[in-house]
Fold this sequence. Notes:
By secondary structure, the chain is α+β, with helices and mostly antiparallel strands. The protein is about 35% helix and about 25% strand. The strands form 4 sheets. Strands 1, 4, 5, 6, 7, 8, 9, 12, 13 and 14 form a 10-stranded mixed sheet that branches. It has a 3-stranded mixed sheet with strand order 3-2-15. It has a 3-stranded antiparallel sheet with strand order 16-17-18, with helices on one face. Belongs to the thiolase-like superfamily. HMG-CoA synthase family. It comes from Apilactobacillus nanyangensis. It is an enzyme of class 2 (transferase).
Amino acid sequence: MNVGIDKMSFYSSDMYLDMVDLANARNEDPNKYLIGIGQKKQAVIPNTQDVVTMAANACTKIIDDDNRKKIDLIIFGTETGVDNSKSAAIYLQNMLGLNRRARAFEVKQACYGATAGLQMAKEYVQNHPERQALVIGADIARYGIKTPGEVTQGGGAVAMVISANPAIAEFDGPSTFYSDDVMDFWRPLYRTEAVVDGHYSNDVYVDFFKKTWDEYKEITGQTIADFKAMTFHLPYPKMGIKALRSIIDEADEEQQANLKKEFEQGRIYNENVGNLYTGSLYLNFLSLINNSDDLQSGDRIALFSYGSGAQGEFFSMKLKDNFRNDELAKSLDAALKSRKQVSVEEYEEIFTNWIPIADGDIKLDTSNDKAEFFLEGVKDHQRIYGRK
């Protein structure tokens, strides 16, 4: 029985910061960001959006009366949770009017959370083929103003419906995984900004990729020639480029050219949105299937997931006949093109107005938030959500 991704969508803020503007404001050569990091723009997330509202806004594009009745597993992968106890999945279940007879919970392991959810959803649907699962990867990447990680900020949510006989892609064979206790990136409970050792994290990322790739080849007998494209967790595009370069010599010249070409199609959304932690791999995958002209049903796509701290996983999916939804692709392209560019000063003001980790009621101005779901504020220690 085939199980895989039946539907998927993406949501992010309607504001962005141009990396050339940021580079000029920080007295850096713009090419350090455009080429050295591979980032063109990054989403600027207002305080009226959090991971719950962004997930809900993504889900409205793929939840209908049919799958709303079938979904009884809701897994929310995030490292930007809104409560240390109550899961974002429970909020989301209520906001979308999903089945009450459902398992709903949150998964955390840095940027790996959505992949953990995806693998759990796969096994659940294999055992219950008449049911479906909703998997979310949503995060807001914050490192701080004038920090080395500032250029790798961003945010958004990717939503996926997992089912039997999926329309987009089916799981193809086993996964390989590797984990170790390393301090390359973390965020203490008392901080809204992450702590990161960037160079070390890059090294660990590539090391975990090669370890899982080598094991995958060993247990499956497959080689790089068996893959039409490779997708990666992309906190910024250059990280995926480094991973691909570490094994590209295993391919012949024609295959190398093809893999590089498909990587360019897969990076389009990421380089214009920025880092969304748990959703970054799946935004890369979505960008690939929406932008590549060469993909066909049956093509095998590699996926490498990485979460700092650290966990890596390599797995494969095969594209199905209806892997591209032209209507959703056009809608996403239109949303990205219609975003408002903000100045560095405006971005800094938005960043500093983020809801603090502190006691007290907060009333937010939602008049400029055009999203269907939004955060109104905090009252009596409870987040108050609104819907247009």
